[in-house]
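Researcher: Structure prediction, please.
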Amino acid sequence: MTHRRTHQTKTVHSLHDATLSLIDGAIETLSSRHDDAAVHAARKAAKRIRAALRLMRGCLGAAAYHRENRRVRDAAKPLAAVRDAFMLRRILRKMPSRSSALEGGLKLEYRRERQAFSGQGLQVALVQLRATRQHLVELRPMAPEAASAVEGVGNTYRAGRKALVKAKSLDDGALHEWCKQAKYLLNELEILRAVFGVDLRKLRRRADRLAVILGDDHDLSVLSVKLRRYDVTAPRLAKHVEKLRRRLHRRAEKQGKKLYRLPAKAIKATIAAHFLKPR
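Model: Predicted structure follows.
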């Protein structure tokens, strides 16, 4: 279930250029390859693009930010559907207990999502990504990038702290929202490091660990839903999945307290101080 990132944003000198580089990479990947690995890579790139847009919100303005964020989100939807379909099958193969009914259902879903992606899904993704790229090429910044980036990370960190509180309910929706915020924070911190050389190493590592834990939990949550849909006669498998999730919840709570122990204003002040250091 765990997938460590190997791709890093190449060294660039502005958020604007970094975002264009990420978009170009996703377009190139989807234009040249359509296999599962390419879909997974493009989906991760879409998450990083959305994180970069959050950092650029002050430069874009609220209206443009929401429009471009929506475009990239729509581009990622067919990618996410394919990724989830093949990832669930991979997870199921690692389980000590099997369900032929669930395996069959997931296999049909995978074929359906691949067919949809090969048809309209791929074109939708490319059209949306190219539209966002064109807008960014024509961009006239409304604010300095450094100030926009500081505010962006602060907002994401604050949203993550709020999501942590709601996730204590162990509601699947609240846990998924917390997962998204942790991944946004991680991507934003990695972009800050690549573009500006601002490296909050401890915060970034904690965000990475939490994102992996919550990502694994989300996959198991989706698998539980599929299990109830396709096979309600596999209590051993269902029990094992719930056991794994309880373990992940304990780890997430522990890691979340470390990651979100400071107020957002302290994180913003730390990042702002890094920008003032001579480089």
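Model: Residues 15-269 form a domain with the CHAD domain fold (CATH 1.40.20.10).
Researcher: Thanks, that helps.
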